[in-house]
Every structure is written in structure tokens, then in C-alpha cells.
Amino acid sequence: MKFMNHLTFGQYVPAQSIVHAIDPRCKIIGTIFLLTGIFLVKHPLAFGVWGLLLLLINCLSRLPFSLVLRSARPVVILVVFTAVIHLFFTKGTPIFQWGIITVTKEGFRMGVYMGLRLLFLVLFASFLTLTTSPMELADGLEKLFSPLAPMGFPAHELAMMMTIALRFIPTLLDETDRIMKAQLARGANLDKGNLWQRLRAMLPVLVPLFVIVFQRAEDLATAMEARCYRGGNGRTRLNPLLWKRRDTVALFLLVLSLSLLIYVDRVVIL
User: Does residue 206 share a domain with residue 105?
Assistant: First the structure.
């Protein structure tokens, strides 16, 4: 239950910062470049530069760094699992051997690199949701997908589904926490016993959670129908997106920095 209280992925934290003011389309494109560039670097110094870039974006966003780190908690197990898989199953020069267990130099390096890549992947992606409201994110996605609409691509529907899914994450976490507290008040033991006993103890939590999820979805669909929702056709916006000079400058500086970093990592260092 304490773990649920520290999840921040999918939440929006309003603040007065440069990152919050940037156009959501610019942030989406920049995030794609960042996530792609993470997997293109190989040198340890390059990962240090990624860490400095993460701290720079955090300072510009004016968000507590502890809040950003909480978004990585759900993937800690995945990061450790990935690192362990590379550590024991990558062939190369042995540095430790005990029975059938062999740790290689190449496996250790690859495990650390993949763990850092997954960690940076989640941290950089969390800035997008922490600094962009769900409505702005939906409008940005719809604008980016709109060139594909004449070919039959459901740009508005896809953007709306992704935004609703992101908005439901904090809501479902709150509902899960409330149900778990109610079960604990009734004497349920959710944190004791072996794995099978814990899974069985979670059934009284999952059943009402699924009921609430379907009820929320039905209520949302009814509310959208009552407001004559007809997709993106003829829809007007109170605050339309405006691409400004600062968005162009921010995207240009980001792409230039990533290009130089990848060039130095691939050509100069190697």
C-alpha cells in the first residue's frame, strides 16, 4: 500500500516553468528524440551526459527531483531483471565463476548499460506527463496525427484514448489505495505469507477495482454522449495550440545537442 502512494507516472503537476510553457507538440517530438537517442549511445561518458541533461530539464521544469524519481519505482524490478539477464547470459571474458554461474565483463557492462537506458527512458518520459496537462497532451497528439487523417487514420480517437488512459492512472491508483485500506480495516493481511497467499489476498481488491473501472468507463461514455460528443468534427477549443519561436528554439537546441552527443559517442570517442 505504501508503494501505491508513491507512484507518480501519468500525473500532471502544474507549475510556472519554461518546460510547462512549451507547446505539447514540441515536448512530444522532443521526448521521441530523447528516447531514441538513449539507445544510440554506448560510451560511459555519454550516459553521464544524459544524467546532466536530465538534471537540466528537471531544473528548468521546477519540479522536485524526488517526485521525478518516484516515476521510476514501477520499473525498478524490470531494470534489475534486465541487468541480471545480461549479467549471467552474455558471453565474453569471465570475471567471476562459481559452478555453472559465470559473470562476464561484457555481460556486466551490457547489464549496467541496459539498466541505465531503461531508467532514463522512464525518467525522460515522465517529464512529458508531469509537465503537460491531459487536455494539452490530447490536442498535441491529435495535431501530430492529423496529417494521417485523410488516409483514414483515427487521429482524434487515438489521441483521446491515450489521454483518457493517462488520466485514469492516478484515479485507479487512488481507488486501489482506498480499497486496500478498506480491506485492511476489515482485518485482511495483504503483505503477509508467500507469493501464492499474497495473490489470493489481492482478490478482494481486484474484484471491486474491476467493477469500479467498468463503472467509471460507462459514466464517462454517458457523460460524453450527453454533451453531444461526435469526435473531432467541428470541435472548437478554448485555448488552441500556438507554435511559438521558443518552441522552435527549444526543439532545435535539443536536436542539435543530441546529434553532437551521438556523433561524439560514435565517431570521436570510438
Answer: no
Same domain, 117 and 12: yes
Quote the CA–CA distance of 212 and 266 in Å, as a whole number.
Answer: 51
Give the range of the structural domain holding residue 209, as residue numbers without chain letter: 158-232
Q: If phi over 0 gives left and psi between -120 and 50 gives alpha, with beta otherwise, what is residue 231?
A: left
* CA distance linking residue 64 with residue 52, whole number of Å: 16
CA pair distance 80, 83, nearest whole angstrom? 5
Q: What is the pLDDT of residue 1?
A: 46
Count Cβ atoms below 10 Å from residue 266 Cβ, excluding itself. Answer: 14
Q: Would you state the cell numbers that stand for residue 12, as one nine-digit string?
A: 500532471
Please name the residue that has the C-alpha cell 549511445.
Answer: 41
How many domains is the chain built from?
Answer: 2
117 contacts: CB under 8 Å, gap ≥ 6:
38, 39
Find the helix or strand (DSSP H, E) in which 173 lies: helix 155-185
- pTM of the predicted protein model: 0.75
pLDDT in tens, 74-117: 778 888 888 888 777 777 777 777 777 777 777 788 888 888 88
CB atoms within 10 A of CB 258: 20
**Would you say residue 189 has pLDDT above 80?**
no
Dist. CA 104–CA 97, nearest whole Å: 9
Is residue 143 a contact partner of residue 25, using CB atoms and an 8 Å limit?
Answer: yes
